[in-house]
Amino acid sequence: xxxxxxxxxxxxxxxxxxxxxxxxxxxxxxxxxxxxxxxxxxxxxxxxxxxxxxxxxxxxxxxxxxxxxxxxxxxxxxxxxxxxxxxxxxxxxxxxxxxxxxxxxxxxxxxxxxxxxxxxxxxxxx
Length: 126
Prior knowledge:
This protein has five helices and four strands, in the order E-E-H-E-H-H-H-E-H. It is of the alpha/beta class. It has one domain. The chain has a four-stranded parallel β-sheet, covered by helices on one side. Helix 3 packs across helix 5. The radius of gyration is 14 Å and the shape is globular. The mean pLDDT is about 90.
């Protein structure tokens, strides 16, 4: 066992793939063209997404990825209520973080997953 929580990622445009777990939309804006029924969400935690200024600055530019990660982690550290809402789902069992970005490697859900996994590991070691 790795000690990491079972947190996976899925694009909102791919549709449900049968993975077990609570499905959490972690974007600030609703994925364009997707119906609520199609996403089969358990929760929409929009406040955990990057702030508008950070999201616009990043613009999904891979060249800005390292700086984006640092800035978004700082936002997450300051946004304890929204992070705790995600952690509460993670403590119950598997979670699928749903995001709308086209880039599967350079998006906020990747940073959020890592942040949540680290927080849960710290909890277990405390």
